[in-house]
Amino acid sequence: MTTVSIRNGRSNTSVRERIGPHIPVFLLTLFTAVGVLALLSDRFRPGAEWLVTLWSGLLGGVFALALGWLAVGRSRGRMAAVSVLYGDAVIATIAVTAAEPAMGFLASTILVVTGAYAMVLPQPRVLWVHIAVVLVVTVWLVIGAWSNGPVTALTCGAIAIAVNLGLVAAFRTASRETRSRLLVQSELAIRDPLTGLLNRRGFERRFADLLRHAGGLTIAVVQADIDNFKAVNDLYGHEYGDVVLTAVAQRLHAVVRDDECLARTGGDEFMIAAAIEHRFIPSFAERLRSAIDQAADPVSITISVGVAVLPPMSRYSREHIQAVQRAADQAMYDAKRSGGNRIAVR
């Protein structure tokens, strides 16, 4: 038995993975800039000297702390939470210390930005803290504007809450609906419509997960092809051919374990992968072959099984996946040339 030996390489990363970690830094920089501009504005700059000092300390100290957190490589999730809470602190400070109540209410509506980001974070407590900040800031502003008339103060407060919490709630609902549709579409995109198994794209995704969680085990990749399938189609028609494909898929699915990967990757081709101890590979392949060869079938259905082995590695690249799949495909053709209904290993 030979194994596939190829060079280590870098795996591709998605746009989300590349951009996502930089969003907190962008928000921190944005809200610091907003705070600095507010300090320079006559309409937003607080009148008391101690408030200016407090505000400057908030902008400089928290931003420096957050950048230090990023520099030492701390949790990205915590960094995102810090950016939301920092943004809330800056905007709340701008709002409650604004020289004019109207400018304070206007500034408070910017909290919708941090609210939208807090909504998509996995830490629900961040969103609840944000909501508490919105309510406290709004109550503070209503009290400060009460001297201008209760109706005006309450109206401005209601508008501020509607903008902040209403838009965040609407965004949350829309985001959930969009996410649900995307999940359905994503699942359909990786499924074979006839058999319900994974397609080639789904196999690559599932196989990547298998490699990440292999735990030092050998990776066995199997390419299985139905023997004489073209003759079945020619003799009995394509509808019966679909019945055969579905039956093979069901039988393979019945013997493939949850931690293994099964897909229909072509017309009559199926691919299976498993993280397994090397000594169990022959029995693993035989389990698949014998599941299809059943004497009770009105028409004989068998498969040729090709097996390729990928040894344990610290990291696998796309070249690893392609090479082991090619080796399994070649082994499958070796089994066919030997008469079919048998196993060949490379």
Q: Any overview of this molecule?
A:
This protein is α+β, with helices and mostly antiparallel strands. The chain is built from 13 helices and 5 strands. It has a 5-stranded mixed β-sheet, with helices on both faces. Strand 4 (303-310), helix 13 and strand 5 form a beta-alpha-beta unit. The chain starts with 14 loop residues before the first helix and ends with a strand.
Question: What's a quick, concise take on this entry?
Answer:
With 346 residues, the chain is an alpha+beta fold. It has 13 helices and 5 strands. The longest helix has 40 residues, at 150-189.
Unreliable stretches: 1-16
Average pLDDT across residues? 80
Q: Portion of residues in helices? A: 55-70%
Which class best fits the helix and strand makeup? alpha+beta
Query: Which oligomerization state do the chains in this entry correspond to?
Result: single chain
- Strands of the widest sheet, in order across it, are 2-3-1-4-5
Radius of gyration: 31 Å
Strand content: 5-15%
Count of strand segments: 5
Spatial separation of the terminal alpha carbons: 6 Å
Q: Overall 3D geometry?
A: elongated
> Please, how many helices?
13
How would you sum up the major sheet? 5 strands, mixed
Give the ordered list of helices and strands: HHHHHHHHHEHHEEHEHE
Helices, strands, pairings?
Elements: H1 15-19, H2 23-40, H3 49-71, H4 76-96, H5 101-108, H6 111-120, H7 124-145, H8 150-189, H9 200-212, E1 218-226, H10 229-236, H11 238-255, E2 261-264, E3 269-276, H12 281-292, E4 303-310, H13 318-337, E5 343-345
Parallel strand pairs: 4-5
Antiparallel strand pairs: 1-3, 1-4, 2-3
